[in-house]
Amino acid sequence: MLPLASVTPPFWSTRYGIAAAVAVDDPVTRSLQLYGEWAEHETILLSGLIEEGHTVLEFGGDFAAHALWMSHVVGPKGEVHIAEPRRIRFQQACANVAINGLGNVFTHPVWLGRDKSSAALDTMTPIDGASANEKIRIVTIDSLRLDALHLIKVNQPHALANMLAGASETLRTYRPLLYARLSGLDTAQAEVDAIKALGYRVWSHVPYLFNIDNHAGVEANIFPGMVLQNVIAAPADSRFEFAERLEL
Amino acid sequence: MTACGGREQHEEERARRARQMRDVSRMLDAMEADTTPAASHGAPMAAPLLPPHPATTITPDDDPSLPLLAIGAIAVAGGLAIPALATFAWRRRKRLFVPRPSASSDRPSATDPPLTSAPVTHPDRTMLPPTWVYCGSSFETPRIQVADDPVSLLVVPMATAPPARADPWDTCVREARALPRHDAEALLARVENQVRATLDDADDRARPMLLAQWMRIRLARAERLSGATRLFAMRELVAAIEGDPAANDPVAIDARIEAQLAWASWMRGDAAASRLAEAERLCTMLRDDDSRSAALALRRKGQIFVQRAELARGRQALADMERAQTCFDEAHTLSPDAETALLVARTALHRARSLSPADAADAADACAHALMHAFLAEHEPDCRAEALACRLDIQLVYAALAADDYGHAGVTASLGRDLEAAGPLAPAARMALAEACLREGDHAKAAGLCESIWGDGGAQPRLLNLWRDACDRWGRSEDHDRPALARSLRRLAIARSTL
Questions:
Q1: Is residue A8 part of a domain?
Q2: What residues 282-321 of chain B have any CB closer than 8 A to a CB of chain A?
Q3: Do B499 and A245 touch (CB under 8 A)?
Q4: What is the pLDDT of residues B247-259, one digit of tens each?
Q5: What is the pLDDT of residues A201-241, one digit of tens each?
Q6: B89 has pLDDT over 60
Q7: What is the DSSP string of chain A?
Q8: ipTM score here?
Q9: How many distinct structural domains can be found in chain A?
Q10: Which of A91, B311, B349, B476 has the most C-beta neighbours closer than 10 Å?
């Protein structure tokens, strides 16, 4: 990790608000620092789905980079819930929520799983570094007892299948849209199957990390050819149709 | 007789009729093309071979005075072509009848001298004996015009677009679409400031029109933004006019509907449905006390149904398309301009595409309906390229419905050439052209067109499937350009991998 003192200035101006500067040891922070945005192609797609008054749940805080725009999209009558299990990242996300005065964002220092329990972080997801054996708290989405839910956005890898298993009641009640980053070659098929088993249709979404129209107007591409392998899923009986996307 | 002849003779006869039909169609097109300066330089066009629309079928009593040329053309053509041409001619005659006074007293009696201004006279007119009119009896025959008004096959000039939209600011908005991003943004920002300044100083009478202009410029700027930023821009736009009394004037309401329709097109599912519901609510506030206003309201309603159909599947989508068709048909009856004709044509084409193979007859009827209106739209220079693309699409759909290929290849090729000559083409037009090229065996060109559409941001499964088919057939053709094919395949792989 780079020393914090080497990062100047203390805040970054991003597309949807300001973000506290942190060490740039991560694609998210590198993108926020250089481009003033992170995975903007995801927000372009999701901006066509979220409305004012909606409730959104995001698993994996990504420094609240997307929570900033979701907060504006759902407006004062909507809610954005962020679940971030890692202690330092949770605090950094909270800082960004606080300095932007986002009253409709709720933060949860938890891992969303199949059952209520606790575990070391590296038993849940492959991870290196100091936080690998950090103890995390696991809860289910059902236990959050949300009053409404329109979209679940999953940024955290190796979490989707178990998270869905702990959300059966919520999914049955609210039938939210799902937007998830797949975990990799070994688990992608099982994750897609888990979504389909809930009566959802699934489409592929492969956004490039580099956005040529980025907020900072930087032309250099520090993510050449890099894409995220995501899926968007909607209940089969809903009116969602993504004709231009590949249905899985 | 056909049944008695040999198979070879039968096929020869059908081929001959198809050739004749094509030639007659080209002759008619060439005649029509002479009416507009832009069209007069183009190559002759061909008409798709279509059956008549049921609503337009001619009965023997219906038409004592079809133009001689049309009669000649119909006599020459045969088989499927006859009803299509008859329908076309009858439709034109029907349009020409609309503004004609209906009261018989306004018409000259049979004994009056013939009108010298008439460009065409019926040959029977001079031969009618006066004894055919009986007077002074209880069985008196009312005075009737036994010779119908002359009918011209030349298409009458279309009604022009409402003058409200043809101002310098509107022109700037259109020009901005063709400019590079930064130039366009600078132009639109400048124009928006000008309109805003004028709007702030305007009196109550001028405000609605200026407000509508300002909204359209803001909408043009929003179009150029990305998802989230555009969403916020649209919310700001709607919030900015809230509480302004001028926003409830029909002119401003129309601009508000336009904004909601554009917004809905950028949204999905329920979010899009919410925007369409708002557009529908605004539609009820539109005036319909004169034909132009009523036609405008109907067009907007039709556009809402079209977009609603895109959110639905199966029967629900088809039902919405049929409602849209009804609205556009009524709007075209009230105000027969080229833009509305094009909307009618596109909706009918969409319906033809949406129908299942079991409803092939209905699909053919929808094609006929679409074709008539595409023809009408084609005579407005601004709509010519889009109407040609629509005709080519209709031809492709109809050829897929038809049991045989007689004459279709020639018509498709001719339409493709006309379309290419019409100038820079929109992605939808290039897609139709690519499909036509694929059917004609020009696989390299079809692949190139698909690639160009992808380069402009298109990546629908239909496009990628067409591109894949083009490359497959290109690879199977002898002496093909291997490096060019490899390049196209590589780009196709990239396009498919980033879905």
A1: no
A2: 310-313
A3: yes
A4: 888 889 999 999 9
A5: 999 888 888 988 888 888 888 888 888 889 999 998 887 87
A6: no
A7: ---GGGS-SSEEEETTEEEE-----SHHHHHHHHHS-SSHHHHHHHTTT--TT-EEEEES-GGGHHHHHHHHHH-TTSEEEEE--SHHHHHHHHHHHHHTT-TTEEEE--EE-SSSEEEEHHHHS---STTTT-EEEEE-HHHH--S--SEEEE-STT-HHHHHHTTHHHHHHH--EEEEE---TTTHHHHHHHHHTTTEEEEEE--BS--TT-TT-----SSTT-B--EEEEEETTSS---TTSPB-
A8: 0.78
A9: 1
A10: B349
